[in-house]
């Protein structure tokens, strides 16, 4: 129960997080071959677990501090525009009489975004508002203790809210989510609605949870899996802490002035959520699980043959080794189960220093899927953008590959 609204079985699982249940796979492993001390000093399983939990807490803190320091970092970046404006000639300033007013308005909208991010931090339950404010005060006058990469992830999270939980994001959801939902409806068209709760669907890379929510909204039981804690903290907020449609306003497109058609569009609010994620069918079980997909499901024998459907949307190219992803999907599906996929192949770890990465062509991916034990049908290409500004002069359109694959 939250604010008088019941959200059936909406659970977020992870380790070390006070408000969440503990089922997250550990991501920090002790490498025994690289340990050079006395063998008798090898850490016990309990010591390793405690070390893992300390590392996870540090990661939680890093993510939450990035959310908390968004305001300060963004105001500093926006102030650069004032500085650059002051360097131009008086003649040019007269041609731009309202420019500083726009910059001032962006400052105000940064403050509005910061209020929403503050609610996300509060909803996490890990740090109190006093602790967050103390950290900010301790760093006053210093460079914010977050990296440009951290801030990129915060800004990307704001855009993800547009894609998943706003009216403006509906075209992207229609392109990427509807084909999966329609395929599910086709597979189970003869199953009575009241029995759909028996069908278990897994959505790896669930992001802010909208696809998983829509699957549940059609009566199926669905579990979302997500690795990014920027996404997990934000999905926990939107799924469990919002009490009314369009309760919050965000301004995700104010951080860049490039490719803007009209300033009024750029500064307009995006209201979230477009729907309240509470009125799910009583038979549907909805949960979110934190952790790496391979570690949570592939390294867990209890997951073998447990899922009727695995739905991957803009996900399989997040793999360091895409073959391992395909093996895990095959392993966890029931015989005759369905893998529904849509997305491009923008390999996330290609050319990333210090990371291994296997990049396969689409033809190679499908060939390996067949060898592993899938029969691929219903193939088509679907164009889609991803977290794009609907009013921007620049949009990247992916030619997404769609298919249904059946486990032989």
Index terms:
42% helix, Rossmann fold, 8-stranded mixed beta sheet, 408 residues, carnosine N-methyltransferase activity, alpha/beta, carnosine N-methyltransferase
Number of H- or I-type helical stretches: 14
Instruction: Work out the count of structural domains.
Output: 1
Strand element count: 10
State Rg: 23 Å
Topology order in helix (H) and strand (E) letters:
EHHHHHHHHEHEHEHEEHEHEHEE
- The level of helicity is 40-55%
Query: Roughly what fraction of the amino acids lie in strands?
Result: 15-25%
The CATH homologous superfamily name equals: Vaccinia Virus protein VP39
Shape: globular
Which structural class do you get from the secondary structure elements? alpha/beta
Distance between the termini: 42 Å
Low-confidence stretches: 1-43
Q: For the record, what CATH class applies?
A: Alpha Beta
Q: Whole-number average pLDDT? A: 86
Subunit organisation of the chains: single chain
Task: Name the strands of the widest sheet in spatial order.
Answer: 1-6-3-2-7-8-10-9
In CATH, the topology is named Rossmann fold
CATH architecture: 3-Layer(aba) Sandwich
- Major sheet details: 8 strands, mixed
InterPro entries: CARME (IPR012901), SAM-dependent_MTases_sf (IPR029063)
Organism: Umbelopsis ramanniana AG
Enzyme class: transferase
Keywords: Methyltransferase, S-adenosyl-L-methionine, Transferase
């Amino acid at each position: 129960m939250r604010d008088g609204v019941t959200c059936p079985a909406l659970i977020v699982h992870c380790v070390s997080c006070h408000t969440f249940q503990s089922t997250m796979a550990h991501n920090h492993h002790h490498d025994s071959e690289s340990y050079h001390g006395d063998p008798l000093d090898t850490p016990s399983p309990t010591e390793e677990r405690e070390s893992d939990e300390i590392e996870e807490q540090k990661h939680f803190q890093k993510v939450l501090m990035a959310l908390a320091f968004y305001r300060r970092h963004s105001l500093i970046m926006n102030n650069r525009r004032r500085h650059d404006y002051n360097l131009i000639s008086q003649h040019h300033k007269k041609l731009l009489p309202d420019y500083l007013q726009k910059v001032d308005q962006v400052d105000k909208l940064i403050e509005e975004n910061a209020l929403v991010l503050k609610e996300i931090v509060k909803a996490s339950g890990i740090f109190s508002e006093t602790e967050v404010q103390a950290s900010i005060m301790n760093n006053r006058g210093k460079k914010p203790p977050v990296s440009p990469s951290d801030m990129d992830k915060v800004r990307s999270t704001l855009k993800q809210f547009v894609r998943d939980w706003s009216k403006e994001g509906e075209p992207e959801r229609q392109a990427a989510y509807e084909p999966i939902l329609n395929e599910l409806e086709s597979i189970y068209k003869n199953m009575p609605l009241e029995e759909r709760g028996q069908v278990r669907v897994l959505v790896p890379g669930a992001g802010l949870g909208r696809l998983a929510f829509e699957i549940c909204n059609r009566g199926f039981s669905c579990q979302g899996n997500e690795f990014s804690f920027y996404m997990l903290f934000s999905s926990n907020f939107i799924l469990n802490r919002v009490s009314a449609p369009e309760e919050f306003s965000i301004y995700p497109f104010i951080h860049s002035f490039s490719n803007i058609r009209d300033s009024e569009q750029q500064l307009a609010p995006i209201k979230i959520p477009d729907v309240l994620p509470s009125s799910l069918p009583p038979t549907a079980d909805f949960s979110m699980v934190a952790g790496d997909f391979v570690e949570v499901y592939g390294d867990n024998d209890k997951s073998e043959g447990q899922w009727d459907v695995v739905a991957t949307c803009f996900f399989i190219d997040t793999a360091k080794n895409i073959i391992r992803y395909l093996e895990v999907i095959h392993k966890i599906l029931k015989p005759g189960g369905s893998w529904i996929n849509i997305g491009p192949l923008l390999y996330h770890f290609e050319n990333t220093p210090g990371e291994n990465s296997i990049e396969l062509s689409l033809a190679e991916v499908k060939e390996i899927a067949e060898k592993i034990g899938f029969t691929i049908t219903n193939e088509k290409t679907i164009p889609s953008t991803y977290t794009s500004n609907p009013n921007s002069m620049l949009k990247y359109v992916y030619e997404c590959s769609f298919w249904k694959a059946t486990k032989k």
